[in-house]
What does this fold into?
Amino acid sequence: MKKSLAGSAILLTLVLAGGPAVTAAQASVSSVAAAPAAVQTLSPEQTSALAAKLNALRPTDGSTLAAKVQAQVAIDDDLSAAVIPTACNPSTPVRDWAAAQRSDWTAADLQLADAINSFQPLLLDVLLWPQDAGSNFGLSGEFNTDVNHTFRDLGRFWDIDPAGIRLEPMKGTMLTDQARMFRLFNVAYGFPAATATALATEVVTAMNQEKFDHGNHPYFSFNAFAYPGTVIPGFVIPKMIVMGDGVLEAFKAIGYSDVTAQAILAHEYGHHVQFQRNLFQSDLTGPEASRRTELMADSFAAYFLTHARGDALQYKRIQQFDQVFFQLGDCGFTNPSHHGTHAQRLRAADWGYSVVQNSPDQGHILPSLTFANLFEAELPVIVA
Ligand SMILES: [Zn+2]
It folds into this structure.
């Protein structure tokens, strides 16, 4: 479910460091504690009907607030497609785990999940209303320490201004929250209040089923990305790193909880170094341009993760994680958001580690632009 992509130049012009005050529309939803609704089980017919209704109602023009926000999510790491079954997705530990989580889904359930995901509810909710995202990373907050410590360490490590970069979780419980689903349909998609209320009620009822883990199913929150910050009339969207519960839980389930948050966060923070240092600009276009910036972020990550003044992790462990993580890579080598092949990404990480290894002074951190220049010189070798 890759989005159509705007050019990076457009995106960069929209990067702002601050902005007008939060509007009324951006205010928090009230936390009125409603009694939990009884869980209803939908029949396959009801499930299919809701999927069809959502698909028919999904706006296709670019005039909605949702479309304007989505158009700016150009440089991101949309992993959500990685767990969606397609012919080109080979079996991998993560994909197999994700498939097992859907083993009790019917074809209609998958249709409905895809119809809901196509509205990108979690992505829009966290970008438009980050103040409601909460502070727990992982379903029970088990990644809080790793995420927060790594974020702090990244801020001290790289020579950019970390102020203003928000770190937010992405949690599927939004899907069973009537007020937040109403807000999505009404504000982000512009549906009249009555329509939005009815849709929210139906989606919340459907998502509240056990098979969808009451919204917490990883199919809905399998994502992590960096956002450069944007102003859209009525909304100031801050610079952000978003970490979805689904991706954290997936790697925990297959045995990588000790490095997952660190490695993903280090890559996403690398994108913020690129935003602040104008490193998205190059002579390359299309897939080669995104491949360059993604591989650079992989190198930034390996450098930070293994540096004595960074996370000082064993590179062997990072390599083991990367071996599995890079298997999520898209198959779309012509896609404008292409991240590079598995082998290229591993070479980019290996190279970042080698810069640490070959430094005569293990206590010295290279300036980000110096590191980026070294990367540019190495890029032809990495992609060879
Ligand atoms: Zn990336």
Q: What stands out?
A: Residues 8-382 form one domain. Residues 1-28 have pLDDT under 50 and may be disordered.
